[in-house]
Design brief:
With 168 residues, the protein is α+β, with helices and mostly antiparallel strands. It contains two helices and five strands; from the N terminus they run ααβββββ.
């Protein structure tokens, strides 16, 4: 009888371990999905900028994109403004909906476009996408979305550095 109880106890601990592993796998899968979505979105904006080099300076942002409700982007007067509006909608998850809710992006996604050194390198731009991660890790060095999330250790970021030719 005692041997049966001990066997049941060992099996119970094994099942609890399996549940813990399954939980960790689910969190890791969600983190990987969000990173993949962020890579798609950061590359999307980089390609939009490459396609419109004459308005490249108009892409630089002073506030995070994707934090306000998306409006009708067709009302924007310039290609750069329309691209930023459409990118903001994508950051909010507009590309995929489930029951009327936007579910196609990361948790709390934001985007930024900056010029790291406008004097020494006027043709270099950095596109960044940040979002809220599910577990703590090291804080990214990019300034986009800084202090906008629960903890800097849960803020995630992907960036693309874009170097455009100088047109004269």
């Amino acid at each position: 009888m005692i041997e049966v109880l001990i066997s049941m106890l060992i099996v119970a601990f094994g099942i609890l371990g399996m549940f813990g592993m399954q939980t960790q796998a689910t969190v890791s899968q969600m983190e990987a999905y969000q990173r993949a979505q962020a890579l798609v979105l950061v590359k999307d904006m980089a390609q939009r900028m490459e396609a419109n080099p004459l308005q490249i300076a108009n892409y630089v942002t002073t506030v995070d994109i994707g934090t306000t409700a998306a409006t009708d982007c067709t009302l924007e007067t310039t290609t750069a403004a329309r691209d930023k509006c459409e990118w903001g909608a994508l950051l909010q998850g507009a590309a995929e909906k489930l029951g009327g809710s936007k579910v196609g992006a990361m948790i709390g996604a934001r985007g930024c476009i900056s010029r790291p050194d406008p004097v020494a390198a006027p043709n270099i731009y950095m596109v960044a996408v940040v979002w809220q991660g599910l577990r703590e890790s090291g804080a990214p060095t990019v300034a986009c979305g800084k202090d906008a999330y629960d903890s800097e250790a849960t803020r995630r970021a992907v960036t693309v550095v874009l170097q455009l030719p100088v047109l004269s």
